[in-house]
């Protein structure tokens, strides 16, 4: 009995220690967790989501027509924040006080459940985050389970607003939960590398941009849940994105990941991402002539931030690993030497940021492979994690080409239907104006001469003949 109590006590201590270490590794100044539509607070992964019905000052809800909705069937496997939702029948917004200006993470939680009164599948709405168009004609996602959409944006004002706009009078908007968290200073650096074909240039002001997280994967490892990430992120396995893996192997590391100041911190990537990888390894005197490649579906006509995570957890010694990095089929980094990047320390993580344009293929591809400096009987390429983040377009939108002003009217689709005839009418009027101006210019181009005052009188016929001779 005493041994059992001892083991239970040790297990509780270990669980408490792990939870304490993870939760306190980063303590954000702004940390708003909203349980939308719920009457009670809920705890998920040791995080307390506060009810927006309690009248607390946690988040200011401005909604002329909204109500709480509870799922008809409560699934015990789902976190409690997905059992309720806040439903909006008119444009509404949450307002959060910003105490720590800079990059903030905004996560919107959606789960389309049904109830006796309403089915959330029938929703259609638009979402704006601090004036940026985040979602248009959205209905909560196509998946059966919950969907979390994450944005990172630089906030300089004292308020951050999230606005929900139903699409038309007969529709409604909803949300299950919201997270607004101030990010670590080193999460988004100031400079990245911009790729245009094989041309590489500096992209400055990266930390002033806004992003939507499209893909976040751990390479070679298992799924990483928010409980195991200091910023409460989810990292999916890379299996669905891996295209060419011939000659590659997975590797797992049980030692300590050695974070260094100025490189990747635990907030940039957790241990669970850096302690696994896929690699190409030469097992004889010849170097494999293969690349490891991944393909990620994206939407064209946007720029994307591609972040690649590296940590040499496989080499037996320093200075043995050299490889090339490719993005969208172009050489992004030649002869990458992890030992030199990490000041000659194994198992020390770092990352590379590239800004690329998405073409009509709808794919952002990533690949690593041996370089001219790769060595036999050594690791010849490695990758630990990938993040793909969409950047907003010139209209300030992550979803379409309409500005926030039109989206706020409630129906971007009808706005487009109205704008197209208007644009056609303007073009027609401009064409008529150009045509009339050319006619007038043609008339004005005729040279008229003043008749002399001392000429003798002439008949009309003579006058016409004289005038025509001067023209």
TrEMBL record:
Cellular localisation: Membrane
Domain Malectin-like: 46-391
Source organism superkingdom: Eukaryota
One Pfam family, short name: Malectin_like
Transmembrane segments: 418-436
Membrane topology qualifier: Single-pass type I membrane protein
Record-linked InterPro entries: ANXUR1/2-like, Malectin-like_Carb-bd_dom
Entry annotated with the keyword Transferase: yes
Name the record gives this protein: Malectin-like domain-containing protein
Organism of origin: Hibiscus sabdariffa
């Amino acid at each position: 009995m005493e041994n059992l109590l001892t083991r239970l006590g040790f297990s509780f201590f270990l669980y408490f220690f792990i939870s304490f270490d993870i939760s306190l590794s980063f303590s954000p100044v702004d940390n708003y967790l909203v349980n939308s539509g719920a009457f009670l607070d809920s705890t998920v992964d040791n995080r307390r989501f506060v009810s927006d019905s309690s009248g607390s000052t946690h988040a200011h809800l401005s909604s002329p027509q909204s109500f709480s909705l509870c799922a008809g069937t409560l699934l015990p496997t789902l976190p409690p924040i997905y059992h309720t939702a806040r439903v909006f029948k008119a444009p509404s917004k949450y307002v959060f006080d910003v105490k720590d200006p800079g990059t903030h993470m905004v996560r919107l939680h959606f789960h389309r459940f049904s109830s006796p009164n309403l089915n959330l599948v029938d929703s259609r709405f638009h979402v704006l985050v601090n004036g940026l168009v985040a979602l248009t004609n959205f209905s909560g996602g196509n998946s059966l389970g919950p969907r979390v959409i994450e944005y990172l944006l630089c906030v300089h004002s004292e308020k951050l607003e999230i606005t929900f706009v139903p699409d038309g009078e007969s529709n409604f908007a909803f949300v299950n939960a919201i997270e607004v968290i101030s990010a670590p200073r080193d999460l988004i650096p100031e400079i990245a590398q911009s790729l245009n074909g094989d041309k590489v240039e500096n992209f400055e002001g990266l930390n002033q941009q806004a992003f939507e997280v499209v893909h976040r994967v751990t390479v070679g490892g298992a799924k990483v849940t928010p409980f195991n990430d200091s910023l409460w992120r989810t990292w999916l396995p890379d299996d669905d994105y891996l295209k060419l893996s011939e000659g590659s192997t997975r590797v797992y590391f049980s030692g300590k990941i050695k974070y260094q100041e100025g490189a990747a911190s635990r907030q940039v990537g957790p241990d669970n991402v850096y302690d696994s990888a896929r690699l190409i390894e030469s097992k004889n005197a010849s170097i494999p002539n293969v690349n490891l490649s991944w393909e990620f579906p994206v939407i064209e006509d946007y720029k994307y931030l591609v972040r690649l995570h590296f940590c040499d957890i496989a080499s037996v010694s320093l200075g043995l690993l050299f490889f090339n990095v490719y993005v969208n089929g172009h050489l992004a980094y030649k002869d990458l030497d992890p030992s030199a990047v990490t000041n000659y320390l194994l198992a020390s993580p770092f990352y590379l940021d590239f800004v690329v344009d998405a073409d009509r293929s709808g794919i952002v591809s990533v690949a690593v492979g041996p370089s001219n400096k790769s060595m036999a009987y050594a690791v010849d390429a490695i990758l630990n994690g990938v993040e793909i983040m969409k950047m907003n377009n010139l209209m300030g939108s992550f979803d379409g080409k309409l500005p926030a002003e039109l989206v706020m009217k409630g129906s971007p689709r009808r706005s487009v239907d109205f704008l197209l005839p208007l644009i056609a009418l303007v073009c027609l009027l401009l064409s008529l104006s150009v045509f009339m101006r050319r006619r007038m210019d043609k008339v004005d181009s005729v040279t008229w001469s003043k008749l002399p005052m001392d000429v003798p009188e002439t008949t009309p016929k003579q006058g016409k003949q004289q005038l025509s001779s001067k023209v």
